[in-house]
Amino acid sequence: MIVESSISAGVGLLALGAWYGTPLAMRAREQAALAALCRGSLVLSFDDGPAPTMTPRVLRLLEQHGAHATFFLLGRRAEQHPDLVRAVVDAGHEVGSHSQTHAHALRSAPWTAARDATRGASTVERLVGARLPFRPPYGKATLGTRLAIAPRPVGWWTIDSGDTFDPLPDPGQAARALVAAGGGVVLLHDHDREELPDAELRRAFALDVIARLLEAADATGLAVRRLCDLDEPLEDAA
What we know:
Elements: H1 2-37, E1 41-49, H2 54-65, E2 70-73, H3 75-80, H4 82-90, E3 94-97, H5 110-128, H6 143-149, E4 159-160, H7 173-181, E5 184-189, H8 199-220, E6 223-225
């Protein structure tokens, strides 16, 4: 009986390790590959939109710089603002999915996170009409989440802009990290965050960071690209 219990416990620990450990190993490997792939390029990537205040501001700023980006949309917000989804697509930006309600994979029941991921992907893909890359909320995933969204690629990042940090960092920090690394995929957000007392301050901060990143890319000769463009040789990029 003791032996059987020990075996069962061991099997359970192995399964638990695979459930949570395998995605961590996958992420480390994929982010290392991404860091190599994005050298020479700046990719601006936005999570949690679309939002009626922030997304149009971001689109206007990108248009002013002639730049394209990648937007990972929440399904529930995409349903609320299909006009903004269309505006993102019509402007030539890449679209990905970011789950339906932003469920945290490590703090939710396994089936809840997986279902939220697939539902969000289905919602955005229905609006856009194509199979899309996926970015896990909070960057967290379990083996169940990864299986649920397969074969969609996972869109990671290499630099965090800090636009959700408390307190907010120096707005030039992300641009300095970009230049030091010789390129990068930057995590930003285009949600409104109206529930926060400093929502407008945070929106202004994010827009400032975007402008600094684009200026740094221009000054150092980095190509501004979408995630989906990174597989193309730099000389072939538009």
